[in-house]
Structure formats: C-alpha cells, structure tokens
Amino acid sequence: MAEASAPGPFERLRALDRRCQALLGAADTAGAAREEWTGVLFSLAGQRLLVDMARLGEIIPLPAVTRVPLLKPWVLGVANLHNSLLTVIDLRAFWFRSATPRSGRERVLVVNRQEERIGLLVQEVQGMRHFWTSERSDELPPLAEAVRAHVRGAFRRQDEHLAVFDVDRLLDDPAFSRVAL
User: Fold this and answer.
1) Which own/partner pairs from 154-163 qualify as long-range (CB within 8 Å, at least 24 positions apart)?
2) Where are the alpha helices (DSSP H) in 34-166?
C-alpha cells in the first residue's frame, strides 16, 4: 500500500491563500452590513450629548458677538462668520435659564438650515465619536426634561450611553422660535 505524500510547500501556501481569501470575503460581507454613524460629543450643564456630524457646518470658538436689543437672554446676538451673519444662541441658557460659564473651552456648533446659519454655544466639545448604527437605541440615558424634548434616540456601547441631540427638533420648537421679549 502506497503512503500518501505530505503536501509540499507550494500546496500549503495555496491552501493558506484560499483560507485567507475566504476569511477576507466573509469580513467584507460583514462590513458591508454594518453602517457607521459619526457624531460630535459635547457637554452642557452636566449633560453629555451627541450631535450628528452631518448636521454641523463647523465648530468654532465663541466669536465676538453683538447683542441685539429686546431679545430673550439666551439669544447672545449676532456675529460675523465668513462675511455673513451668524445668530448665536446659548443652549444652556435656553434649556436651563442660566448662562454658559466662560472657561475658554466653550465652542459654537454652527448648523445650517435652508438659508439660515445658527450657532449653538456649548460648554465643551469632547471630540468625534463613531458608532455602528446597530448600536443605536431608543432607550435614553438620564436627561434633564428640557433636554429630553430635543433628543432622538441614543447610542450604547459598553459603559457609554449617550443621547443624540436632534438639531431639527430644537429648531422646530415653538419656544425656540419666540426670541423677542
């Protein structure tokens, strides 16, 4: 009876290549099913929130703002941004009736809606966060009631549970539209 010969080095390499190609194909298929969501994490009065990166035009330091008379205190005023007017809103003052403390870390989230640009002052921007859409949840972390009205869902990963601030819910809020005293 003849003994079967062991595969030579070339045959081993071909088998290894076939296994690697099969694994890569499976990884590509799994990756295609996963869609990534990118947001910016910011903090405000002890609340940590995400905002969809696609909704932001830019993030800037607080610019020089010109106060406009007879507007509610949470409307800081207008600023010049790239030779156009930017209305600057203190989001903490809108939600909690107390101004955002100035520390040098505060930032303005610039959002665009049709022809209008609005700057939302927040206490601190903590960077970008990437999540898989499969990590999205309808269950919200503990939030102040004023904030909860402007949130749509959350993302949960390990010990992080972050609500998603919905810019459109804020901009559509009738209380946000009533800026005059």
Assistant:
1) 155/37, 155/39, 155/50, 155/129, 155/131, 157/131, 161/137, 162/41, 162/48, 162/49, 162/50, 162/129, 163/47, 163/49, 163/50
2) 91-96, 145-148
44-91 confidence digits (pLDDT tens)? 999 999 999 999 999 999 999 999 999 999 999 999 999 999 999 999
**pTM of the model as a whole:** 0.81
What ranges do the domains of the chain cover? 36-177
What pLDDT sits at residue 3?
Answer: 54
Residues 178, 71 contacting (CB under 8 angstroms): no
The class (CATH top level) of 36-177 is mainly beta
Indicate if the alpha-carbon torsion angle 173, 147, 121, 102 is positive or negative. positive
What sections of 9-157 are H helices per DSSP? 9-33, 91-96, 145-148
CB within 8 Å of 52: residues ≥ 6 apart: 37, 38, 39, 164, 167
Give SS3 for 51: strand
**pLDDT score recorded for residue 90:** 98
Calculate the CA 178 to chain-centre distance.
Answer: 26
